Amino acid sequence: MVNCINYLLICGTGKKAAFKSRFGLGIVLAIFRVFNVNIDMKKIKLVLVWSLMLMVLLGASTANAQADIPGEVKTAIRNGSARDLARYFNNTVEIGFDGDKSTYSKTQAEFVLKDFFSKNTPTNLELNHQGSSDQGQRYAIGTYTTKAGAYRVFVVVKQVNGRYLVDTVDFTKK
Fold first, then answer.
1. Which of 8, 14, 41, 85 is most buried, judged by most C-beta within 10 A?
2. What are phi and psi of 139, to 5 degrees?
3. Number of domains in the chain
4. Is the dihedral of CA 153, 158, 159, 160 positive or negative?
5. Which tens digits make up the pLDDT trace of 35-73?
6. Helix pair angle (16-34, 2-11), 10° resolution
7. Domain span at residue 138?
8. Residue 152: which of 134, 174, 133, 130 has the closest Cα?
Protein backbone atom coordinates (compact mmCIF):
# COMPACT_ATOMS: atom_id res chain seq x y z
CA MET A 1 0.00 0.00 0.00
CA VAL A 2 2.93 2.31 0.70
CA ASN A 3 4.09 1.77 -2.89
CA CYS A 4 0.64 2.84 -4.14
CA ILE A 5 0.82 6.09 -2.20
CA ASN A 6 4.35 6.69 -3.49
CA TYR A 7 3.14 6.25 -7.08
CA LEU A 8 0.36 8.76 -6.46
CA LEU A 9 2.73 11.26 -4.88
CA ILE A 10 5.41 10.91 -7.55
CA CYS A 11 2.94 11.10 -10.44
CA GLY A 12 0.89 13.82 -8.81
CA THR A 13 3.56 16.49 -8.58
CA GLY A 14 3.92 19.40 -10.96
CA LYS A 15 1.76 22.20 -12.34
CA LYS A 16 -2.03 22.08 -12.11
CA ALA A 17 -2.62 21.03 -15.73
CA ALA A 18 0.01 18.34 -15.53
CA PHE A 19 -1.26 17.27 -12.11
CA LYS A 20 -4.55 15.94 -13.48
CA SER A 21 -2.98 13.73 -16.14
CA ARG A 22 -0.18 12.60 -13.83
CA PHE A 23 -2.61 11.92 -11.03
CA GLY A 24 -4.72 9.76 -13.37
CA LEU A 25 -1.63 7.84 -14.44
CA GLY A 26 -0.69 7.46 -10.78
CA ILE A 27 -4.08 5.92 -10.04
CA VAL A 28 -3.67 3.43 -12.90
CA LEU A 29 -0.19 2.50 -11.66
CA ALA A 30 -1.47 2.17 -8.10
CA ILE A 31 -4.25 -0.16 -9.23
CA PHE A 32 -1.70 -2.36 -10.99
CA ARG A 33 0.39 -2.47 -7.81
CA VAL A 34 -2.61 -3.29 -5.58
CA PHE A 35 -3.47 -6.30 -7.73
CA ASN A 36 0.19 -7.25 -7.94
CA VAL A 37 0.21 -7.05 -11.73
CA ASN A 38 3.44 -6.63 -13.60
CA ILE A 39 3.47 -3.17 -15.14
CA ASP A 40 4.27 -2.99 -18.81
CA MET A 41 3.38 -0.30 -21.33
CA LYS A 42 1.02 -2.56 -23.30
CA LYS A 43 -1.20 -3.07 -20.25
CA ILE A 44 -1.17 0.62 -19.37
CA LYS A 45 -2.05 1.59 -22.96
CA LEU A 46 -4.86 -0.98 -23.03
CA VAL A 47 -6.35 0.33 -19.78
CA LEU A 48 -6.07 3.94 -20.96
CA VAL A 49 -7.64 3.19 -24.36
CA TRP A 50 -10.59 1.35 -22.78
CA SER A 51 -11.04 4.16 -20.23
CA LEU A 52 -11.03 6.78 -22.99
CA MET A 53 -13.56 4.81 -25.06
CA LEU A 54 -15.85 4.46 -22.04
CA MET A 55 -15.68 8.20 -21.32
CA VAL A 56 -16.49 9.03 -24.97
CA LEU A 57 -19.48 6.66 -25.01
CA LEU A 58 -20.84 7.99 -21.72
CA GLY A 59 -20.32 11.59 -22.85
CA ALA A 60 -22.15 11.01 -26.15
CA SER A 61 -25.18 9.43 -24.47
CA THR A 62 -25.35 12.27 -21.94
CA ALA A 63 -25.16 14.89 -24.70
CA ASN A 64 -27.96 13.16 -26.60
CA ALA A 65 -30.18 13.02 -23.55
CA GLN A 66 -29.60 16.69 -22.86
CA ALA A 67 -30.77 17.69 -26.34
CA ASP A 68 -34.25 16.22 -25.89
CA ILE A 69 -37.44 18.13 -25.25
CA PRO A 70 -38.51 17.60 -21.62
CA GLY A 71 -40.73 14.52 -21.25
CA GLU A 72 -43.50 16.46 -19.51
CA VAL A 73 -43.91 18.68 -22.59
CA LYS A 74 -44.16 15.64 -24.88
CA THR A 75 -46.66 13.97 -22.57
CA ALA A 76 -48.84 17.09 -22.35
CA ILE A 77 -49.03 17.37 -26.16
CA ARG A 78 -49.58 13.61 -26.56
CA ASN A 79 -52.49 13.82 -24.08
CA GLY A 80 -53.86 17.05 -25.57
CA SER A 81 -53.62 18.77 -22.19
CA ALA A 82 -53.26 22.53 -22.57
CA ARG A 83 -53.26 22.94 -18.79
CA ASP A 84 -50.29 20.59 -18.31
CA LEU A 85 -48.45 22.13 -21.24
CA ALA A 86 -49.02 25.66 -19.88
CA ARG A 87 -46.94 24.79 -16.80
CA TYR A 88 -43.91 24.85 -19.09
CA PHE A 89 -44.71 28.01 -21.06
CA ASN A 90 -42.30 30.92 -21.29
CA ASN A 91 -43.75 34.37 -20.47
CA THR A 92 -44.80 34.68 -24.11
CA VAL A 93 -45.40 31.78 -26.48
CA GLU A 94 -45.50 31.79 -30.26
CA ILE A 95 -48.28 29.51 -31.53
CA GLY A 96 -48.86 28.71 -35.16
CA PHE A 97 -51.57 26.89 -37.08
CA ASP A 98 -51.04 26.23 -40.80
CA GLY A 99 -48.63 29.13 -41.22
CA ASP A 100 -50.60 31.72 -39.18
CA LYS A 101 -48.42 32.56 -36.18
CA SER A 102 -49.18 34.79 -33.23
CA THR A 103 -47.51 35.54 -29.92
CA TYR A 104 -49.57 35.05 -26.77
CA SER A 105 -49.17 35.43 -23.03
CA LYS A 106 -49.07 32.22 -20.97
CA THR A 107 -52.79 32.42 -20.17
CA GLN A 108 -53.85 33.28 -23.71
CA ALA A 109 -51.68 30.50 -25.14
CA GLU A 110 -53.28 27.98 -22.81
CA PHE A 111 -56.79 28.95 -24.02
CA VAL A 112 -55.73 28.87 -27.70
CA LEU A 113 -54.23 25.39 -27.34
CA LYS A 114 -57.16 24.18 -25.24
CA ASP A 115 -59.45 25.13 -28.12
CA PHE A 116 -57.17 23.42 -30.68
CA PHE A 117 -56.88 20.23 -28.61
CA SER A 118 -60.67 20.06 -28.05
CA LYS A 119 -61.27 20.29 -31.82
CA ASN A 120 -58.32 18.00 -32.66
CA THR A 121 -58.17 15.35 -29.95
CA PRO A 122 -54.87 13.49 -30.27
CA THR A 123 -54.65 9.79 -30.99
CA ASN A 124 -50.85 9.74 -31.16
CA LEU A 125 -47.73 11.89 -31.07
CA GLU A 126 -44.57 10.61 -32.69
CA LEU A 127 -41.43 12.73 -32.49
CA ASN A 128 -39.35 12.13 -35.61
CA HIS A 129 -36.43 14.43 -34.84
CA GLN A 130 -35.02 16.22 -31.80
CA GLY A 131 -31.99 18.42 -31.47
CA SER A 132 -30.54 21.64 -30.18
CA SER A 133 -29.20 24.85 -31.66
CA ASP A 134 -25.92 26.60 -30.97
CA GLN A 135 -27.82 29.06 -28.74
CA GLY A 136 -28.97 26.21 -26.47
CA GLN A 137 -32.54 26.01 -27.71
CA ARG A 138 -33.99 22.52 -27.95
CA TYR A 139 -36.48 21.55 -30.61
CA ALA A 140 -38.58 18.62 -31.73
CA ILE A 141 -40.34 17.87 -34.99
CA GLY A 142 -43.00 15.21 -35.11
CA THR A 143 -46.41 14.04 -36.19
CA TYR A 144 -49.48 14.89 -34.13
CA THR A 145 -52.22 12.47 -35.22
CA THR A 146 -55.96 12.99 -34.71
CA LYS A 147 -59.03 11.10 -35.97
CA ALA A 148 -59.52 13.81 -38.61
CA GLY A 149 -55.92 13.76 -39.88
CA ALA A 150 -52.32 14.45 -39.03
CA TYR A 151 -50.33 17.59 -38.27
CA ARG A 152 -46.63 18.28 -38.40
CA VAL A 153 -45.77 19.66 -34.98
CA PHE A 154 -42.72 21.78 -34.24
CA VAL A 155 -41.83 22.64 -30.62
CA VAL A 156 -39.01 24.89 -29.38
CA VAL A 157 -37.97 25.20 -25.74
CA LYS A 158 -35.50 27.73 -24.34
CA GLN A 159 -33.57 27.67 -21.12
CA VAL A 160 -34.76 30.41 -18.77
CA ASN A 161 -33.30 30.62 -15.26
CA GLY A 162 -32.16 27.00 -15.41
CA ARG A 163 -35.52 25.62 -16.63
CA TYR A 164 -36.51 24.68 -20.17
CA LEU A 165 -39.69 26.51 -21.12
CA VAL A 166 -41.85 26.23 -24.23
CA ASP A 167 -41.23 29.15 -26.57
CA THR A 168 -42.88 27.96 -29.81
CA VAL A 169 -45.55 25.44 -30.78
CA ASP A 170 -46.47 25.14 -34.43
CA PHE A 171 -49.04 22.79 -36.03
CA THR A 172 -49.23 22.39 -39.82
CA LYS A 173 -51.89 20.18 -41.43
CA LYS A 174 -50.34 17.38 -43.52
1. 85
2. -145, 160
3. 2
4. negative
5. 666 666 666 666 656 565 655 555 544 444 445 668 899
6. 160
7. 71-173
8. 174
